[in-house]
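so i finally got all the pieces together for this one. its two components total, 379 residues if u count the protein bits. some of the lines might not be protein, just check the labels. i wanna see the whole assembly predicted at once instead of chain by chain like last time, that was a mess tbh
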Amino acid sequence: MISPLEARYYRRRMPLLWWAHRRSYAIFLVRELSSAFVALFVVELLLLVRAVARGPAAYDSFLDALARPAVIAVNLVALAFVLLHAVTFANLTPRAMVVRLRGRRVPSRLILAGVYLGWLAVTAFLAWLVLS
Amino acid sequence: MEQITLRVARYRPDDEETEPALVDYDVPLRPDWAVLDGLNYIKDELDGTLSYRWSCRMGICGSCGMMVDGEPKLSCATFLSDLAPGPVRIEPLANFPVIRDLVVDLTDFMHKLGSVKPWLIREVEKPVEDGEYLQTPAQLDEFKQFSMCINCMLCYAACPVYGLDGSFVGPAAIALAHRYDLDSRDEGDRERLTILAQPDGVWDCTFVGECSTACPKGVDPAGAIQQAKLAAAQEAVKNLLLPWRSR
């Protein structure tokens, strides 16, 4: 039940293109959109695993499919979005995580450095695994 | 004296108006005048029917929040000289229903604020004669930032999630809940987390981060919400792994 006073309120609705009205909203939406590309990479990885499971022929044809220029172009765009996603995610970590060591709060910069060092270590390990 | 035009949203349901209309008023452009001074000039000298909320004129009371050129601002802390040459568009706070002119209804927030129990919860209350609950400066620092909130609602006006889904508890209420969760004197964090982890609680937040940008007091509601998410997730995992632990 709304009162007669409330019935006269002016209620505004968010316009459909609300995100286009402010730069920060637009950037936010691009970041949200980047999740779709993260999902794309996950699907690609799952398809790779399936191809490996089906044997050398399936694996080779999967690699051929990935080598097509159109697929490479899509993957490059996806990589750009995934990097944006990863970097913005990492940069937000110190605000979401409060870490204490011996009762003292670890400064944001150290947490951020930890996240990037971890990322670097995982990347180096994967590079060693693939290239060696 | 140099003038600046304030383009003010007027909504007068008493006059059978069905939607707000922008009305131009020319006010003196003085270097020491904030938007609020301009509105007071309109009210005193040009049109006494203009309605808006204000009180302290010094960024403490949180009454004079409005949209200034599309951004949620405290009108007492936004200077006309920074907005020159104008015109300056002044509208009621976004995402709230408008009662009249620049006055919005904040009832929804008041209900939400109460729902997160922003007060000290103790398992057993100490008798008054036993004195205060003591706290060290370091313990105070843990939550002080989040206690600076003045309930001005700029964060709700900046939050697209609240604009799209009015049932979201919202930034200020969650930041205040988090303020008590971090308080060493409080023992109600699990009780509050149960409330915050419900639908319409912290998980509705998509971390746009505009609440923290809009905050005139340097509170970081977006950070508070993410910290509450982390705490809620940890609590859920603990309950899953150790179902016998007391609730």
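Chain A has a mean pLDDT of 90.
Helices of chain A lie at 4-7, 23-53, 56-66, 69-96, 108-131.
anyway lmk what u think
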